[in-house]
Queue: 4 jobs
Job 1
Amino acid sequence: MVRGDDGSLFGESPHYRWWALAVVMLSLFLPVLDTTIVNVALPYMMGSLDTNQDEVRWVITAYSMAFAVSTLASAWTRTVFGIKNLYLGSILLFVLSSFFAGISPNLNVMIIFRILQAVGGGIMMPLGFTIITEAFPPAERPKAFGFFGIVVVLAPTIGPILGGWLVDNFNWRDVFFINVPFGILSFLFTVFVLKKDREHILVPFDYAGFISLGTALSFLLVGLTEGERWGWTAFFVYECWAVAAIAFWIYIMTAFSVRHPLIDLSIFRDLDFSLIMVANFFRAVGLFGRMFLLPLFVQTFNAFTATDAGLVLLPSSLMAGIAMPVLGSLSAKGSDTFKRVLLVSGFLMLAFSQFLFAFLTNVPKMSQIIIAQLVFGLSMGMLNALLSSIPQTLVEPRYIGLASSLQSNMLQIGGALGVAVLGNFLDHQQADYYARYQSDVTHHSYFYQRVVDFFTQSATHGNVPDIQARVGAMITGTAQSQSAISGYNETFIAAGLMALLGIPMILLMRRLSHRGPAAKQTVVHGGIE
């Protein structure tokens, strides 16, 4: 086969759109995988890189910050390089920085290459959304995003499992090296499959907007990720949020004074687009909040190892992987009413899957965990395809690239906020329940005296030293265990209630489909026109 003038072996094929989808799924699997695969390697990095727990966390934090900020520039850089060249460059940057991160001799070098790695991945993510949107007609986009959603739910799940296996059997540096062969494969696949862009209209870059909004996003994410460790009332956390608020205010002020702002705020005049972005936010809270809570839960009460805790997430990912393509295909043929019912049902199922962990009084059985995970996976199957495709469908063609960038950022912010809020809520609930249980059981309480009497009688048949100390330790252990379970109960209830907040957003939307036949499209700043 010979590549055509558009640079693709399949550019003239009636199935080109599916080849383009395969390119995006293969290439974006790696940066999404890297959001979780590195976590299990952090303890091993501390010894090799001669650092401590507080400092090594910046390997994760720097990646999250750079990933979010780099998405902001993806729409403009597309007009400079073209979508194919930029996508190839992003893959190459990701692969090279993965290799150099793997051979990093110290923490500072590691963080530098993690930032470069995130820049590559951060630009790829919204470009991937755009490639799918432009390759598929509006009616087929839910089906396409149904398949793409497999990457979104499966890659973060596989990350801890694969990372744990690599660390246990090989070396922690292999969590970076594994990106290299698969990255090269995706690079070659992109070279031969993806079409070149048409001509672009190059506009000035909004440097003030990029710096101010990038600063706001970075400090917001740092405040959220570090708040749980430092405490939400810590001065450092307040500083982060103050800087984020000031930087965002500066961006709002400058966005109306430049001709081509980084984010054209007029896009939010469309109420339906604004509502679907908020719904995406609550989806991210539910998805990443659940992925944060459940492994902690089973490690605490079921005594699972880190790898086994990661395997617990697998049933939901497999269920979502099966449901998303099927439901995406059905919703592509359905009316707005059908899509609305599907989305509302998805948020209800998401809340129900959280509530299944909300009324436990003891350690859950494995069957309980799997059933709840299957319900959760089905809810993701209902939500992901439509929530990923609707934002690009609602906006004017020239805003498709911008909508993709905003959606990527919304997932980042929603995920970080969900983990931070639920983690903080869990800590407070456990401490509150522990204090309550301890105060209910005093030396003069009926329960305490019965337990002391039991051990006193038992002591006649054996030597039980210091009965009161033994009883106190037993009661303290019981109070800790029950307060932890009660804390998780309350936190899963909170997670379920947050999921329900997505339903009003869907019900308030006037339309869930494209306006009409796609207009002739010409590439401009932020998308196509």
Job 2
Amino acid sequence: MKKSLLLGAFALLAAAACVTQGVAADWKPVDGILLSKFAKDVDPAQPLPEYPRPQMVRADWVNLNGLWDYAILPVGEKFEATQGEILVPFCAESALGGVGKTVGKENNLWYKKTFEIPKEWAGKSVLLNFGAVDWRCDVWLNDVKVGSHQGGYCPFTVDLTAALKPEGKQMLIVKVWDPTNDGVQAIGKQIKNPHGIWYTPVTGIWQTVWMEPVAKAHITKVRPVSDIDDMTVAVFVEAEDAEGATVAIGDKTAKVVSGKATITLDVKGQELWTPDNPKLYDFSVTLAKGGETVDKVDSYYANRKTSLGKTPDGITRMMLNNEFVFQHGPLDQGWWPDGLYTPPTDAGMRYDIEVLKSFGFNMLRKHIKVEPARYYYACDQLGMLVWQDMPSGDTAHYIRPSDPDAERSPESVSYYETELRQMFYSLDFFPCIVMWVPFNEGWGQFDTPRIVALCRTLDPTRLVDCTSGWSDRPCGDVHDMHNYPGPGMFPPEDNRATVLGEYGGLGLPVKGHSWKEDGNWGYVKFEDQNALFARYNALNRAMRPLITKGLSAAVYTQTTDVEIEVNGFMSYDREVIKFPVDKMRKSNEALRGPEMKTEIVIGCSRNEAKVWKYTFDKPADAWNAADFDDSAWKEGEGGFGTKGTPGAVVRTTWNGSDIWIRRAVELTADQIANPEDMLAYVYHDEDAEVYINGVKIAEFKGYQEYYYADVDVEALKSALKEGKNVVAVHCHQSTGGQYIDFGLVKEIPAK
């Protein structure tokens, strides 16, 4: 797409125009905090130099990122002296900001920056744009207050024109106050006392700060809305001080009325946007007033539709471009060890998405955080569907699954709805976003049907998930289950799709690449990458029949480790990818293909009892050999374990630490053919090892209810034979419920 070249050129222009940034050599990240693999690429003279608003590009701009003066002072105390320098746009608590201090509700965070206006901007209005500031901020230029804003996640603009000096240095002052979870505003995962799934506070500027010159009459927003059924794109344009002016896209024009104009483009013959073919189309919008062009912006659109529909089996599912595409991807928190909310570099931000694409994912759920515009632009370019969460807040009103909706205060409701509207207004441009998620797990959930209706009013073109997990209300477009480790699903409904909004959470700490070396946390933890992938692959196999039954989407927890959570595909510093890329892609892409059928090679006892020989006493070393004499062992029906073990079918009680079981089966030549297509079908609680004719073909760690698991194919090839085969299993239990059952199946590719 040629736009990427344009933005690269604009980034160079911004770099050339970048104002003096101070003595960059004096800056360094805060010591003792884990740094990402991209920290080394941070240039303190020009951090994040890329053009920050790819959906509405102007040629002329100046990036103000870099070293600013700062001070943290008690609320009410005047800002008279600085305490050092902070690297904008990294927050005060971050390592990359160079400060590494908690601010808290008792203090204000002050910023000071001097700059000069390019001479070429004379006679123009000058706009100061903030990507995001958490949370409440006031702005002064040359001792004149020029603006205020409240809300921690979305961009806002301040007009500097009236306060500018005719020439020379301009002095910018920004004051920020952020109560984190002492307030009722949206905070996402931030908390004063980070622990578990709650993370470090973020205070102050955390996205790019930049200036641009505009005419008094100028474009303020461009929003293309595609209609693939008619193959048209309606481009909605908003403009300031432009009544009666003319908006043009190519040879199509429209008059600005009440600050708005609409132009409809005929796009017949163009390609549809999909994750496999993320085709974007460029266009430019001009604004003319009094016969003269006063503004021009470059933008883009995609031909894409998100909706509900019924598949031929009569099941209501999520549709993309009127077709069912199983949406599968991670819960994506968007946190960084060194920048917290802010990625160290644009390349680092894109890297996360690129890794997910290499894994074969086509979707991510942006979890209670809003990203910079360039993030969604990257998703548009790379072909990544996005479910966008509204950041949660008002922690005093987090409800349990069985509770009614919370009753938040008028102030709390006002904060929520204001920031919800800000989020929709700033993100409704991006075609990658296919669903809005206003609530997560009852966190501040209130007045759910009304909020869903508000979401539909703000954007009738996308789906709405009334709440992801826990406290479902009979509204919205999907019924969303959270199930760890899962998978699982609710039954299909006539008017809503069924989705798995969170599952997985398989954890593997990586020494030397973790936020903390001890005290890490995951829903299920593993000791090596092979066991980790085996369990992940088993979850995917268990999901295949759910898709057939009606599951529309699944969200795995999660993209990266975050602080003490170690259940990421990557380590928190992005140095280590914990999963084999090629195997992940094969496993994930299989979910979007025809369902694989299986045939039983060696049956288990889940549905029909199988008789085994067994002993609780440690046998001789050759206990797993085909010719071992097990005549002294007891005989019993599988499975073996204790009553009450979840999902177990206990027919013979085993309540000690160890059990050894053996069983002889007759197999034909056809049954033993193609061992490379064979899988174990097993329930183990806990560690188990499996032998066939004395050859070890599989080993399983921990516990897992019935699932399909990989076996050692080469060992299986050497073990299986036509005629009599002896299966031998040892299972060891340490605590809690216990159970063992084993079978072997062969996958039959769908025709």
Job 3
Amino acid sequence: MTKLTALTHKLKAVLASPRLSAVAVQSFSSGLPLGLITISIPAWMTMAGADLRTVGLVTAAQAPYAFKFLWSPLVDRLSLPFLGGKRGWTLASQLALALLTGLLALQAGMPSAGAVIVLSFALAFASATQDIAVDAYAVETLEKDEQGAAVGLRSAVYRAAMWLGGSFAITLSGVCIMSPDSPLGWGWTMGALAVVFLLMTPSAFLAPAPAHPPPRPQSFAESVVAPFVGFLSKPRALEIVAFLLLYKLADNLAVSLVRPFLVEVGFSTFVVGVASGTVGLAATLAGTFLGGLLTGKIGVGRALWVFGILQAFGNAGYAAVAAAGPNQPLLYAATILDSGTSGLGTGAFMVLLLRLTSRRFSATQYALFSSMFALGRTLCGPLAASLADAFGWRNFFILSILFSVPGLLLLQRFVPWRMKDLPAGIEGSDEADACAAEADDDFWRHLPWSRLALPALCGFVLVFPAASAVLAGLDALKAWNEGGAFQMGGWLRGFFCPDSLGGCLPLLGALCAGLGAALTAAAARIRDLKACAAEKTKE
């Protein structure tokens, strides 16, 4: 009883933290534009009579979210003249979002497709920049015992804001206030959202500054390459990268095909909507919040093990649905099991990202880690379709459980089951950041950059063609699953010569993979040079 009372008092103190409140409010500002860009604007353009090609281009405006790591070093390197640090970037992004949403409101009467597309991309860029700054602020500001609760609160507030900017905005645009035949319309709706963005700006002013601000990189070159070097210097760095891609593989495989599966089994669209949009969302939010809290209590290492196993077996519920047919109570139970256990795993995983990220390169490293997480989710769709087509729904969901094994084997490499928390050297620390900053200044001034060109070129040449072949092959495999012919050559031509802006995204993805390989190879070379410099210093 005494332990329970102490835990309750500790939880109350954590939830009352001004740092936690600031992070939660900023998460609302992050989720709002995502709902606007991914849900409201495509729906608005469809209602306005735009053709599918135009709507597709608007949908492609989500691209900056996938590639935000490309400009995240600027957020680490530059400090804006107001507020400074990540809070200044958050404020600038919020003001840009308010301005751009106001410009969209002016388009509401007779929207110009070109103007809406440009404004949508600008909104996504400002929103992705805000995400970079908000995530980095959380890394720099939160205390260790606040991270678990922060993950749960951020997820809940982010989803609520996304709903407000998406589904609720669509509903609001059709509400009749002045007369039964006069809906509010998109002009007033967009204007209201612009006001909400302005109302969020005090959150940047009121957010407490980090108690110990990390030193900023001294050059753009350092801000781009040093985050890679710092991470690759950690023990088991490559295993950790593979783990970030594979930890939620089993869960991502199942989730990617849940809606088509439920429709094919025989559930109505209404039941599917309730299961996915209401029951599933509530279970995910509850699981993420609980997972974050429990991670702080039992340790991130133990939480990754327990929740990783639970989220894998969460897929078994859908195997039971596939065997039983359209049974609503069983469907809702399976949805709660899958979404709840997935949320538990997500809660532990997001705490891990906060722990792995160096405070000195908080913007760049967190953006890279989250992009790795998103990449694993993106690549699961075509693979899941092939497996489901080959084995059938019930066997597919049972087989997906086995895909949790690679992630758990990699987890054993750097956080064995017996360990409660991350081992020394893997988790970032203020002391390590400060020592690295002091030791690195002279190294970066005398770094022979010409010696990095060959490793970088080799990395790009090796990875870009392979990534291009994989992405083009996935499209060809998808067409084959849908009854077409497997024509790899045709898909390669379409890959390198796309006929639409949306078709450019796979090529951009391959280029980013090549660029990432080039930076990784250069970072590995810098790591070796640093080791040699350290040995010479000792001598």
Job 4
Amino acid sequence: MELYLIRHGSTAGNLEHRYVGTTDEPLTGETLHKLEECRDFYPQPELVFASPLQRCVQTAKVLYPDTEVRLLPGLAECGFGEFEYKNYEELKEDARYQAWIDSGGTLGFPGGESREDFMERCCAAFLEGCAEAQKAAAKSAAFVVHGGTIMAILDRFSMPHGDYFAWQVKNAEGFSCDLEWGIANRGQPDDGGEGESADTGLVEAVVKKNTVSTGSTDEKVGKISADLCGLVNIHPLPLSPGFTGIEDQFVMKKNKKLRCGYTTGSCAAAAAKAAAQMLLSGQICYRVDLLTPKGIRLHLPVEEQEMAEGFASCAVRKYAGDDPDATDGIQVYARAEFLLEDVLWSEPAGREAAEDEAAVEKLTNPESFVTAEKLSDTIRKKGGADRERESQPRIWIEGGVGVGRVTKPGLEQPVGGAAINRVPREMIAREVEAVCEAFEYQGALKITISVPEGVEIAKRTFNPHLGIEGGISILGTSGIVVPMSEEALIASIRVEMKQKVANGERYILITPGNYGADFIRRGGTSIGSPIPDGQNVEVQKHTVKCEVERNRMEQEGADTQNTIEQRETERGKTFSKEIAREEFFRLSAEDSMKCSNYVGETLDIAEELGVKGILFVAHIGKFIKVSGGVMNTHSAHADCRAELFAAQAMRAGTPPEIVRRLLDANTTEEAVGILSETGSLAQTMAEVADHVKFHLQKHCGGAFETEAILFSNQYGYLGETDGAETMMEKMMTEKMELVRKLEEGRRIDNQAEL
């Protein structure tokens, strides 16, 4: 007999993560609507049993409006006693609750049921329903019950056995399984069914009695024997598009609930699994289950199914939740096909085999595809160690249209390979191998992942900058998209820096955001480059330095005018030489990378990767915070810009009345304006730069060099740390050496071709 164990839909208490036991609350309106929309995706049993609590009755009647719902009181949820309708936040300080958690949930609830009593009650009611279904000669039955009820039943009767908490299930989800009677019908005559007949009278008697001896003459407990029946072939129920398994996954950001999604890697693995299943079964797949590395089980709808001789393909649509993801809503396709015979038996069966021109040519020839029958014949002809080796499924994973190709070293995949990262590859291989084993297929399959929309989408991503051309990357380490994830942003910083190091760069140019890159593009850090007001940065730098010297000499009472003019004359003699060296010192925004607000994490990554130096080109709005030791410049972490400006201005000897104006400034641009008009800018920025360098070095422990160039959008160049110019020289020297090595490599390659 086929059974379906279905948990009821969501209630208000469920959504608030409360312990909803005996509380008899209804489903939410949204849940009722979803269940109605998804009704056709649920299995249609001959009989329906349910807990008498209204959330189960409502679910059963919505899913099975034309079937009588038979109520079994023993299927009701556990009584949580004094924990009833409370959640973790309300209970975490309760010592009894902590004791219950520490016990692994084995202790009884204060004033409620023990797990043992609850399990006995549920199992007795379950067997009662099974006996009734057996008596009615039903071939299938559904039990619409509670999460705890399902856990109790499967803990007792699952084969192979799974412990209580292994069977947790989300609202409106469940399991399908086959019922096999145990000792109750051993030696009993078969009624002509398919091995599922039982002495239902004996089962009913045992259920009604509900007691067996524990070995003590004065102690009887309700102990339903697991030998009465077994539940085998247990699988998650395929659900509707309304229930993908991601609904209850969210994060809180600024008191707002943000929905999670699933990655392109999860989509690729799910599509590959469905395509392989269609190829080997010959049947269309409408839904596929996927266990993500994070442990969240997804139930994803399959689209664009296509089957023909030797291949099957389909797509799974990406869902990014509330994350601003450029790939949200795109279809990720997978094509499964039998490998070519000459590629199949190659060692290893991978990309290297396809690099043979003849093999590549055959990939477009349908007559070269190996059919399942041909593969089976070939396998049978092989023997010994070869047969043992070839009996294991081998999966060849490739990238198709819209999946990028790696063109630079330093990424997870080698140059020339498809930009399908390691974890998605592992997920694809695992899922496809499981399908091959389920169908006892011993051959090899080629899986091609394609994203037709990826060609255009990639142009709006960092992929071209990273050296991934022609499409997007198939990504994901957990399989789940966390909206506005700091981890994902920091991981992207690591990927880009790792690639730069792999390409030979040891001095890295970094901008926190787009302002810095724009400043570089308009000549901000190159000697003699023009900027919007018609000056150049080198002149600005010279003017600032003169102003610092002028202020110092004024304080010392010196004859400033003659001295400054003399210094400017001396400067003019060398300035033309520096203009002549303009090309040597020029830095390119295309050589820079962004670190966003994560200054500290960027320094940590740089130390880990063996970087020798970092030059930050940063807007004063972010790096004024760094001058106070703030290594995450997001306003949610610290917004002390005015206070730090005031502190550095005081260190520079700025009059108190000006410092008070700085404290009232609304923006850093306004603060820079105040300092500029009062003649305090240069010395204040010198203090800012000194403290920026101090805190950068303090964070990395002097493991490598750190310098910074500071600017504002309105006033341009503001100042730099004392080693910034030397750092630029090292960067350009390194760049010239890398270019030389690249040209030398090309020259050697050209000679080899000749």
